[in-house]
Structures are given as C-alpha cells and as structure tokens.
Amino acid sequence: MNKKSLVEQTEKKLLAYLNEADTKAGSPFPTEKELGEELGVSRTVVREALNRLKAMGIIDSRTNRGSVVASPDILHLMEKAIVPQILDQETLKEIFELRLVLEVGMSDLVFMRTTRTDLVELHKIVEEESEKNGSIFDVDHEVAFHGKLYELTGNSTLSRLQSLLLPSFQYVYDNHLIQHSEDTAFMSHKDLIHELENGTAESFRNGMRKHLENHYSRLFAS
Amino acid sequence: MNKKSLVEQTEKKLLAYLNEADTKAGSPFPTEKELGEELGVSRTVVREALNRLKAMGIIDSRTNRGSVVASPDILHLMEKAIVPQILDQETLKEIFELRLVLEVGMSDLVFMRTTRTDLVELHKIVEEESEKNGSIFDVDHEVAFHGKLYELTGNSTLSRLQSLLLPSFQYVYDNHLIQHSEDTAFMSHKDLIHELENGTAESFRNGMRKHLENHYSRLFAS
DNA sequence: TAATTTGATATATCATACAAATATGTAGAT
DNA sequence: ATCTACATATTTGTATGATATATCAAATTA
C-alpha cells in the first residue's frame, strides 16, 4: 500500500540508475522523452523528477544539450535546506551539541596549525572584545573568536560546516533556548590563547572543553 | 546577466519568503494557483519550484491540503546526494580529518550517556574482534566499534553524519590512502572501554585522542 | 447524534503546444 | 575539399487545459 507519488518513484529509479551505471561527472543522461517511454510515465513526471536532481546539484541540464551528471557540492545543498526557524527543538539541540563536539574535537588541528600571525589576530579579536563590554555576553564576539578557530584548522569543509550551522546557533541564542551563564567562565578566550601559545595540544584540548563548560553542564542538566 | 531559469528564480523567491515570513513547521503555504498569479509565472513553474522544496524536505504537500512548511531533515539531502559523488583527494582528506574531530569531540557525550547495558555491548564487540584476527587491522571491526560510540552519543544527527561519511572512509582505507600502522596501538579499544568504565570524562577524551594517534601523526607528517 | 453522501477545492498526472537554444545536416562559394 | 551561411531537427523550458484522485466540509440521511 506504500504508494509514493510517481515523481518520487521516478526520482528513486533515476538515482538507482546513477548508482548502477558507471557514471562520472559529465556522463550524459537520456533525454526526457526517452526516460518517459522507458519508465512508462509522462514527460511531466520525468521532468519533475529530473528537477529534483537538479535542485540537489546531481545533474545539470541545458537546452538541447540534454542532462549530464554533475559533481554536487553537498554542503551547498545543506546551506539551502537549513532554515533555522523551521527546525524543531530537538534538531536545534542536536546541532548545538554538534557544535560543541566540533570545537573540542578540532583542538588538535588548531593547535598544530596555528601560526604566529594567527596568534596576533586572535589577540586582536580578544582585545576588541574586552574593550567594549567586559562582562556582557556578546554573540558577535563569540562568533568572531570561534569562527577564527575553525579557520585555523585549515580544513575548509569543517570551516564551511561551521558557517553553515551558524544561523542555527544564532537562533538558539536569540531565543534564549540556551542561556549563557556569565558567572565564572573559568576558561576565557584569553586563557585559551595562552594555552595555544604556551601549553600542549592536550592542555589546549582540555582547555577548550573547560571553556565550553557552561554549555555542557546545561546540556547534561536537562 | 542573471539568466537563471524561471524555476530557479521562483525557487529562490519561495525560499526568501520562508526566511522572511514568520514560518514554523505546519504553517500553511499559498496554493499553486495563488503563487503563480502572485509571481507572474505559470503553474508549471510554480509546481517545479515547489517540487524542489519538496525534494529538500522543506515543505510537504498532499492533495487538496495544499502545502505546509515541514521540519526538514538537514542530513536527508546529503544522504541522497552523496551516492554518485566523486570526491577529490583534498576533500577526502578533509572528511577524514572531520572524522577525527568528531570522534575526539564527542567523547564527553559518550562518557556522560553510556549506560551499563551499553558497556556490555561494547565489550562484546571487542571480544568478537580479538577472537578472529588479533593483530590484523579490520575495517569492519573498526566501524562496528566506533559506530557504536557514535550511537552512544544519543545524538542522531551526529550518528547519521557518521554513517554518511562512512563510504568516504571506506574509500580511503580501500585505496590505502591512509595506512594503519599495526605496531603499537597504544590505546586499544579495550583500553578505551576501561577508561569509559573507570576513568573520567577527561581521561576518556584524551584516551580517544591517543587511540587515533596513528591517524593524527600521519596527518601532520604530510 | 452518527454515518454517509455529496460538492468544492487542491494537488497529481497527462497531453499538447509553442518558444528558445543548440546541434546537425546541407548547399553554395571559394 | 573546405569553409561559411542557412535551414532543419532535436531537446529542454514554459504555458495551458483536461482529467484523476484525495481531502475537507457541508449537507443529507438513518
């Protein structure tokens, strides 16, 4: 009784075809007419199915040139699909956890790849931070500092993943879904930089974990 | 020269509308006819644009009920799209790094959420591991053990991200892009479980980092 | 009141037509 | 024989109308 729509079925068949066939980027695709006859559906349905693949960046099409297999950029896909406002609470929470996981986990990459020049920039960010409002929690500064850290990993996939998830964090903060307790940020940004300069990979990693302690404790409290 | 197709333009407008409007899951969407009149395009174009949103899981539609905003699954897209993808070396490397980042970073989640029952299962996995081939590196065991850890985070987004990236790891292993040095995996799976049972969150985290030392050192060597 | 029928409405699919872009074939000039 | 200009065919892009199907809501009936 599982009667998915024709379009969905067709889309599935097309994806299956892509998997079976020895396709690589640039491989040609049958014409809409052929596909329609082959699969026994109208051209409309074929078109809609193809459209979905196009939306996902799996194929490209141009007038009269037919469709060809493309090499999709997965992260770009996610960028389009993420509309923070319509993500449910549970997903937002998981994304927030993912952020914590990423930041603690990337410590080693940051530690190994940070150069002297990078340290200067980090210091600058922290100073601007303390100039303005010393105690009040500011999302922009938070983003500036941590965003820089992502950048320092030298891993563009990781970095893009962060900017991808950023709107969700923003949303979480804006709606006070996660409140920042300002009492004792035992490990400040300044302290973190200090570890980065004088500590070890391990001490920096554990320092990062401490820096995020507020978030973690709230996570495990609920 | 913004000569994108009408469908793409329309899709963009619809997404913009979603971002502007105060939409949440379940919010109704104008009918195809209305949208067509509003945007000055035919119903065909509207349908194809809506179809794309449907493919991305951003909206749901059922006959006569119109379309409603859905709570999209951010990974769903990637899961569908990653199949035929041909990743270049650089991206593969970055994905591998991402794995390391995730596994070290998720240590705290694992540590806090692992139950006694989970420990039993982990022990079982490790024993099956040592029964077969004690010294030879086996991808399946690796996946079984680490996959279990992801599961223990209780974060389904994280867990799915792993299974999503898995094919890439497999590829990396298969092509010996990253060779596993079998000499002294100082921190074995068994040792890790021991930390999980008797250690602290920090010791487990650092143990996980040690366990992945081989990969890390190879990473930083090149 | 509860169940059923009916009607209105919106999406799902089909069929067709034409427009626009591109590839291909053809004729003529050189 | 080769090149160019033009005509033709092919394929996707867009538009329109028609029919099928599912759903809700109102009307009807028991």
From TrEMBL, chains A, B:
What InterPro entries does its record include?
A: GntR_C, TF_FadR/GntR_C, Tscrpt_reg_HTH_GntR, WH-like_DNA-bd_sf, WH_DNA-bd_sf
Q: Which Pfam families match?
A: FCD, GntR
Q: Does the keyword Nucleotidyltransferase apply?
A: no
* N-terminal signal peptide: none
- What's in the keyword line of the UniProt record? DNA-binding, Transcription, Transcription regulation
Q: Where is the HTH gntR-type domain?
A: 4-72
Name of the protein described by the UniProt record:
GntR family transcriptional regulator
Organism, by scientific name, is: Membranihabitans marinus
